[in-house]
Amino acid sequence: MLDDLDRRLLRHLQPDPGIATTDLAEAAGTTPAVCSRRLARMRDRGILKGQEAIIDWHALGYEVHVSLRFTLDKTQTNAFDIFIREARKVPEVLEIQTFLGRVDVRLVVIARDMAHYQHLYRSRLLILPHIADIEALVHVASIKSGEELPI
Description:
single chain, alpha+beta, four-stranded antiparallel beta sheet, 4 strands, elongated
């Protein structure tokens, strides 16, 4: 699927997605034209999905980071869809994941402080539809973060 040049490009691109094409080409041992074509091909094939800004929410005043694990009351066939539709409406929800197993959905939520989180929890999160059980895990520290693959 990927040849050696594609892997070299990805190895250099992962830690620095904003690297200039000329610098990426030089680091990978190819020309800027070849580099551009390879990157375009990987985008077309869905290997590269884009670039993203990684925001330090703490630096913007969001001190509280919580992972909420939900078990849903699945007596209605569309419980997942309704829950997810409503959870998307909460701006402080950064991520929504679904699972197979005891936990059905996990939300990653940020808040400015515990008072803000408590307000969100009571006024926006506890009223989400079809909740059977909820568990909150307050984030203390990040030990490892990132999505770099060993290519």
